Amino acid sequence: MTVQPEELHPAAGFPPGTRDEWRRLAVGVLRGSGAEVGSPEEALAFTTYDGVTIAPLYDAADLPGDPGVPGFAPYTRGSRAAGGALSGWDVRQRHAHPDPAVTREAVLADLENGVTSLWLVLGDGGLDPAALPRVLDGVYLDLAPVVLDAGARTAEAADAFLRLAAGRGIAPAGGNLGADPIGLRARTGTPVPASGAVELARRAREIPSLRAITVDATPYHDAGGSDAEELGCSIATGVAYLRALIDGGLPVEEAFGQIEFRYAATADQFLTIAKFRAARLLWARVAEVCGVPGHGGQVQHAVTSSAMMTGRDPWVNMIRTTLACFGAGVGGADAVTVQPFDARLGLPDAFARRIARNTQSLLVEEAGVARVVDPAGGSWYAERLTADLAGRAWEWFQEIERAGGAEAALERLIPERLAATWARRSSNIARRRDPITGVSEFPNLTERRPAREPAPEPAVGGLPRVHYAQGFEDLRDRADREAARPEVFLATIGPVAAYTARASFAANLFQSGGIATVVSGPGTDPAEIAEAFRRSGATVACLCSSDKLYAEHAAPVAAELRRAGARKVWLAGKGDHDGVDAGLHAGCDVLDVLRTTFDDLGVTP
């Protein structure tokens, strides 16, 4: 091994760092900000929705153990030894337009411009399975894998696809027939027997690299669930399919070879990286218990989260999906689907699909993200987070198994657990602890959203489908329906330097609900501020200034605003003052404030 000369070592000339030294410096900074500090680790750590603690600092002592090597059990570092270094990951585009002609044109454009596999949504408002020959006309099925997603019409769609391939005299280049009866029940609430999936697996086993079953974990994510909950549900579903396939006569090795997993990727890049690494670790453990550790390499399809997408300021979705795609790619997903930025507005147009596929091309080709096998491998933070997330997911999986398995748990256990997590998440969103750029933070009231053809309505029933931004976007819709935009008057007290920070905070808060703000300008005279309020025509006011100026001027200004007709007087900040109804501060329930303000302004429900 070559020893690097000391003068070229990156740390040469610097004293060695220690955790104790970091702790001393961190305490000094925290105390300088006015915080009462015991342990800096506790002060700076935070906890995920799964109860996993994210520490501010990691070192070699945090490594959970040997993660293995890529391509070998426990597959934490990747299911393939070469990862995506040879060809990148599979760029998979989703198509759900019900018109075969439109879909065929879009499919060919995608395949000619960087897409390497297709995800076709059929039935329930999507394509008619009978249209597959027309849609795939001109597609080389021996080069471009096709993944079917046909819900209740899976058997019909799979039969049409297999007959099409047989008629052309070719074997499909991989792909998946999309059987997922438990996932269908999660989405629609309709019980579906596993016998159909087993029959498709028997047919698919005759075609090398073609799989029959998809474990789609996105319904659990879309219901507001956490990462470990999504993982645990997926492993429980995968185990249920293994049992059905083995009972149906498939050897255990072939049963593992018939299953592919689909997970949501979010804009939290580190949790996304850890999720895909943890998923492989979990499935490898299942294979080990089944006695076939060499067959536990999980095949993963990542799709950027639907729940995180916004209908307001949809352009920001491009950034969200880029982060999600990066996280999935670094995490080792075999195939990645980037949802078009306009997905919440309806069926995507050609521009949106182009941006979606080029996001992946840029990361793979220009940024070279796929050139490194398991880029997160060895990172103290990533390895610890992977292990902790896997541990939480395994506990949840065991709880599902004790309840009778995935299908039985869908009756009560899974919906109740996901609902509890969504309640915690939605509370944090309402308080802007989980900010949503362009919606709960930095909204643009003058935005002009692109118009899109409406997408088919999803099937009714099953687990709920949530969107993180929905509470704020519903209020924006209400405000937009008014003949004149609702307004709140910001009574800015003192010089500009004294009120700017809190006036910006208050304006951002009200605008997140579609409420415009009018600023009185510098000054402390209560009569002048009240006169500006009268001229504005507003009926709700918010005081904005420093704590020092509030002590002297808040009460008299509030009194004058009341005499001028103010129904409600808010104050940006904390503290009790005569004439002030309530304060607006970081961590307050913004959605509750906005709904109350709508009532005070007489906004139509």
Question: Quick gist of this model?
Answer:
The chain is 44% helix and 11% strand. With 605 residues, it is α/β, with parallel strands linked by helices. It has two domains: 90-402, Methylmalonyl-CoA mutase (TIM Barrel), CATH 3.20.20; 478-601, Rossmann fold.
Features:
11% strand; 5-stranded parallel sheet; Rossmann fold; 605 residues; 21 helices; TIM Barrel; alpha/beta; 2 domains; 44% helix; 8-stranded parallel sheet
What does this structure look like?
Helix 19 packs across helix 20 (547-563). 44% of the residues lie in helices and 11% in strands. The relative contact order is 0.09. The model has no long low-confidence stretch (mean pLDDT 94). The chain is built from 21 helices and 15 strands. It has 605 residues and is of the alpha/beta class. Strands 5-4-3-10-9-8-7-6 form an eight-stranded parallel beta sheet. The chain has two domains: 90-402, TIM Barrel (Alpha-Beta Barrel); 478-601, Cobalamin-binding domain (Rossmann fold, 3-Layer(aba) Sandwich), CATH 3.40.50. Helix 11 (269-289) links the parallel strand 8 and strand 9 (300-304).
